[in-house]
Amino acid sequence: MRKFHADSPSTSQTNIDQHIICPLCSVVEKFFYYDELNNHLTITHNIPIKKSVLNFRSFEEFAAWRGQEKRELDYVCQKKKETD
């Protein structure tokens, strides 16, 4: 079976791809993926990361949710591509 992705990044890519930096470490800790940073924050800094996936039927429904919750949490949102 042919592999499409390398098991780990090559050494030449390390400096380019490790762009996610822990904001809490005094010595710079870099990561390839946000999941790695989340694990680092949980294990090293004892900061639990809660993940939730929410789906909204409309932008208005999302805006109502955001208006209620934005003072209590940080979030990332991604707009789904509309299909024809």
Question: What does this 3D model show about the protein?
Answer:
The protein has 84 residues and is mostly helical. It has a domain at 15-69. Helix content is 35%, strand content 5%. The chain contains 3 helices and 2 strands; from the N terminus they run αββαα. The protein has helices at residues 11-17, 34-44, 59-69, and strands spanning 20-21, 30-31. A two-stranded antiparallel sheet has the order 1-2. Strand 1 (20-21) and strand 2 form a beta hairpin. The longest helix has 11 residues, at 34-44.
How much beta, percentage-wise? under 5%
Structural class: mainly alpha
Radius of gyration: 18 Å
Characterize the overall form: extended
Distance between the termini: 35 Å
Mean pLDDT: 76
The total of helices stands at 3
Taking pLDDT < 50 over at least 5 consecutive residues as the criterion, the unreliable ranges are none
**Lateral arrangement of strands in the main beta sheet:** 1-2
Encode the helix/strand succession as letters. HEEHH
- Helix percent band: 25-40%
Largest sheet geometry: 2 strands, antiparallel
Number of distinct beta strands: 2
